[in-house]
Amino acid sequence: MHDHGSLARRKLLWVLVLTGGFMTVEFTIGLYTGSLALLADAGHMLRDVVGLFTAWVASKLAQRPADESATYGHARYEILGGFANALLLLGLLGYIAIDGVRRLFQPEAIAPGALFVVGALGLLVNLVGLLILRSEATNNLNFRGAYLEVFADALGSIGVLAAATIIALTGWVYADALVAFGIGGWILPRTITLLREALEILLERAPKGVDTAKLRAELLSIPGVEAVHDLHVWALSDRYPILTVHLVSQLPCHQYPELIENAREVARTHGIEHVTVQIEPTPLGDAPHEPPSAKG
């Protein structure tokens, strides 16, 4: 697990270096040509450099072992990284929208040749980044945010190529701003999804795919369980769901281990491995005020 985490961080670092290097080239040529699509894509890449760096730092911090002040460890850093990336993406989309509207009323001359060359190179860089991150993006929200950023960059590069082609063939400079709008429109719903997933974990809502009503019913159906209460399901990260629950049972104490194991097995069927079960011989509200004295 540790080796895989180190490899994933190295992949992220490779993509960070590729993106940062090309961003500098794209921004410089965008200023020279006056292309909004190019500057928007360069701005997106600049935000991506920050986002990828945030994802890299979050991944590194998440690998720190648990300690006395962080008994659950540091996995939540990856969720904070994904949340920060989503906020930065929303900021970029706002910039594209505002400047795009301005360009519709005040179009500027654009050199399509330079635009096309930069768009082609950018697409190549982004495709390499997607290949590097693809295997890590399926089961990690932090890396999924980084993958989405690079994917949006690839779309931006395709948009730049389209704008350059239209302007070269027709001279219609409005294509530049319209392509920027198209890129933003595609990115927005995916960014909102990423933000919502991160917020659900930060707010400690039940993980996606866990039906708490069904889970409660299955725990109640375990032989010997008379009531289920204080059931809480949340997640430290998108890969670390947690369950705590109190089970009321009149079974003798020597049967508690079997009862707890049955409860853990129910939790596993819902994808939950980290389980804390407390057995109560009577509901807490009905328990005597004085604890029974120890014998022996």
Fold and architecture overview:
The protein is mainly alpha-helical and 296 residues long. It has 2 domains: 2-202, Cation efflux protein transmembrane domain (Alpha-lytic protease prodomain-like); 212-286, 2-Layer Sandwich (Alpha-Beta Plaits). The protein contains 8 helices and 3 strands, in the order H-H-H-H-H-H-H-E-E-H-E. It has helices spanning 2-33, 36-62, 76-105, 112-133, 141-170, 174-202, 212-220, 256-269, and strands at 225-235, 241-249, 274-280. The chain has a 3-stranded mixed sheet with strand order 1-2-3, with helices on one face. Helix 8 (256-269) links the parallel strand 2 (241-249) and strand 3. Helix 2 (36-62) runs parallel beside helix 6 (174-202), helix 3 runs parallel beside helix 5 and helix 5 runs antiparallel to helix 6 (174-202). The radius of gyration is 26 Å and the shape is elongated. The relative contact order is 0.11. The model is unreliable at 285-296 (pLDDT under 50).
Summarize the SSE layout with pairings.
Elements: H1 2-33, H2 36-62, H3 76-105, H4 112-133, H5 141-170, H6 174-202, H7 212-220, E1 225-235, E2 241-249, H8 256-269, E3 274-280
Number of domains: 2
Structural class: mainly alpha
Can you write the helix and strand succession as a string?
HHHHHHHEEHE
Largest sheet: 3 strands, mixed
* Second rung of CATH, namely the architecture of the largest domain: Up-down Bundle
- Count of separate DSSP helical elements: 8
Q: In angstroms, what is the radius of gyration?
A: 26 Å
Gross morphology: elongated
**What is the helix fraction of residues, given as a range?**
55-70%
Let me know the CATH homologous superfamily of the largest domain: Cation efflux protein transmembrane domain
- The averaged pLDDT comes out at 79
CATH topology of the largest domain: Alpha-lytic protease prodomain-like
Query: What percent strand?
Result: 5-15%
DSSP strand tally: 3
- End-to-end Cα distance: 46 Å
Largest sheet strand order: 1-2-3
Which stretches are low in confidence, meaning pLDDT under 50 for 5 or more residues running? Answer: 285-296
- Under the CATH scheme, which class of the largest domain? Mainly Alpha
